[in-house]
Design brief:
Helix content of chain A: over 70%
Number of helices of chain B: 10
CATH superfamily of one domain in chain B: P-loop containing nucleotide triphosphate hydrolases
Strand content of chain B: 15-25%
Shape of chain A: elongated
Strand content of chain A: under 5%
Number of strands of chain A: 0
Strand order of the largest sheet of chain B: 6-7-8-3-9-10
Shape of chain B: globular
Oligomer: heterodimer
Number of strands of chain B: 10
Structural class of chain B: alpha/beta
Largest sheet of chain A: none
Order of helices and strands of chain B: EEEHEEHEHHHEHEHEEHHH
Radius of gyration of chain A: 22 Å
Distance between the termini of chain A: 58 Å
Number of domains of chain A: 1
Chain lengths: 269, 278
């Protein structure tokens, strides 16, 4: 029993080491790819599949988040006569946390799953070995463009989620609950700072990186057969989801500390 | 069958004391082998005997646990990926299931290695080159098709065209006739012979199709549980005294396996008694 437990531990540490080396290799290739115009078409293709095609789902996610927040919070605030402050609550929640996190989770499902399945199938059918056998580094050819696209486009997609979240919240608050439009925006503008929006988008870079790295790694190391690919996809999604939440916690703590260091008085106002 | 005196210059590709261990299983057990230039070497053996793993070591898709691999006298198993990439342009590898990139057309599949290693300036010449390579394997006219719309035999032929795109000196074939009908299998055999004569390449073929092995081989090597148990030309193998070799080439199950099969039933265990098989 104890031996099996130790064995599991060693295996876990082994996997962590392999993943770290994979991240290192992918980052190195990514840098090299960024300066090689020859590889740009590969990046455009991936940007199209990863970024452009994700816009509708991410927008829908954002819109519903904003609308639901408005519906749930209205009752509480209206009871205290503070319904005009609904805008601050919705917009801060959307641009700071819910927009980025839910957009990233949506991407983990849509893009992460597809990346793992695609690379996993390529691995099982020896296509990755074929790339290698022809003297091309598979990490450079297959992983670098995908990670780069995710890294660059997740923040852009978060902007879409934020935008639709704000509009969704506005729509429900002003049209459905008849809150004064001017007051709604005034309170929002007072409460939401550029810092809130900026950090939300900044987090997106890391969420995108985590999604792409984990999904590509799982695809590259997936076991043979349909079951192997299926398991890899599940593990990739769970891994992405957990790391998005964990990263978000880390950022919440560190960014808050940074904010309080530079603007110590503002939080008191 | 261990030859400790093997030298890196003994052949175009030389494996010296190669050992590969996966987990607790020894897949290659101290294999030393020199592949002669310009000849077709066929490696035969039962499934799981380590023949494909051995071939992947020759192109360093797998790194050995112990031992060395030499190409033209230079050690290659310890090279960095970038140095290996340069050497791999001299190799062509035909995978068992073709391993064509299914998101690319036949044309794009064939220009893939060229795009990666050469600067393309003349696109008309590239068209001609692809046409020429496809004509060599009898697949000209399929340039715009996707691999999904090709049959098994056609996929292998396109894969062969891709393997020869960079004019390699060594071509590896991983079970080239497996899963094909007898006629298509023979077409592939003829192609392997044609490429050997026309391009003067060294071929290394892993197969368990004896008909194919006899037809194309200059030298046949048999693996058994990660060891070499026979080495020679077709006639030598045909008349080999080792019973394991004879069983394999005749496709005959051994007495011990047969007995185990007959006694090892579970569902109908009580239907037969051991004396029924005497």
């Amino acid at each position: 029993m104890i031996l099996a437990f130790i064995d599991k531990w060693i295996q876990g540490i082994n996997n962590l080491g392999r993943f770290s080396r994979f991240i290192f290799a992918a980052s190195k290739c990514m840098l090299a790819t960024s300066f090689q115009p020859k590889t740009y078409p590969l990046i455009w293709t991936q940007m199209n599949t990863i970024g452009v095609k994700s816009v509708p789902v991410v927008m829908a996610t954002g819109a519903f988040v904003g609308m639901i927040l408005a519906v749930q919070a209205y009752g509480q605030l209206a009871a205290m006569g503070l319904e005009e402050r609904l805008g601050v609550l919705i917009n801060i929640a959307v641009v700071k946390e819910l927009g980025p996190v839910l957009a990233a989770v949506m991407l983990a499902g849509r893009v992460g799953g597809a990346l793992t399945a695609e690379l996993g199938t390529m691995n099982v059918t020896e296509q990755i070995a074929a790339v290698e056998s022809m003297g091309t580094d598979p990490v450079k050819y297959l992983v670098a463009p995908r990670v780069l696209s995710c890294l660059l486009l997740t923040p852009a997609l978060i902007v879409y989620a934020d935008l639709l979240g704000i509009l969704g919240g506005y729509f429900v608050s002003v049209i459905q609950f008849k809150i004064n439009s001017g007051a709604y925006w005034d309170f929002s503008a007072m409460g939401v700072e550029f810092w809130d929006i900026g950090t939300g988008i900044f987090k997106g870079v890391f969420f995108g990186g985590a999604i792409a790295m984990i999904s590509c790694y799982k695809g590259f190391t997936c076991r043979e057969g349909a079951q192997g690919v299926g398991e890899a996809c599940t593990e990739a999604f769970v891994g992405c989801f957990i790391s998005i939440l964990a990263l978000n916690y880390v950022f919440a703590v560190t960014l808050d500390a940074i904010y309080k260091t530079f603007w110590p008085l503002r939080s008191l106002i | 069958m261990i030859r400790p005196d093997i030298h890196p210059e003994d052949g175009i590709l030389v494996a010296k004391n190669l050992v590969k261990v996966f987990g607790k299983r020894t897949v290659l057990d101290n294999i030393s082998l020199a592949i002669e230039e310009g000849k077709t070497t066929v490696i035969i053996g039962t499934s799981g005997c380590g023949k494909t793993v051995f071939m992947k070591h020759l192109i360093v898709l797998e790194r050995p646990t112990e031992g060395q691999v030499f190409f033209r006298g230079k050690r290659i198993d310890n090279l960095r990926p970038r140095q290996l990439a340069a050497i791999r342009t001299q190799f062509g590898f035909c995978f068992q299931m073709g391993a064509l990139f299914d998101s690319l057309t036949v044309f794009e599949n064939i220009i893939f290695p060229i795009q990666q290693h050469r600067k393309i300036t003349d696109y008309k010449a590239l068209d001609e080159l692809v046409k020429h390579k496809l004509a060599l394997v009898g697949m000209d006219g399929y340039q715009n098709q996707y691999p999904a719309s090709l049959s098994g035999g056609q996929k292998k032929r396109v894969s062969l065209a891709r393997a020869i795109a960079l004019d390699p000196t060594v071509i590896f074939y991983d079970e080239p006739t497996t899963g094909l009908d007898p006629i298509t299998s023979d077409v592939i055999n003829e192609l392997i012979l044609k490429l050997k004569h026309e391009l003067k390449v060294t071929s290394i073929v892993v197969t368990h199709d004896m008909k194919s092995a006899y037809k194309i081989a200059d030298r046949i090597i048999m693996f058994y549980h990660g060891k070499i148990i026979a080495d020679g030309n077709a006639d030598h193998i045909r008349n080999h005294p080792n019973d394991l070799v004879q069983q394999f080439i005749e496709g005959r199950v051994s007495e011990a396996d047969l007995a185990a099969l007959k006694l090892g039933g579970t569902k109908y265990q009580t239907q037969f008694l051991p004396e029924d098989f005497k």
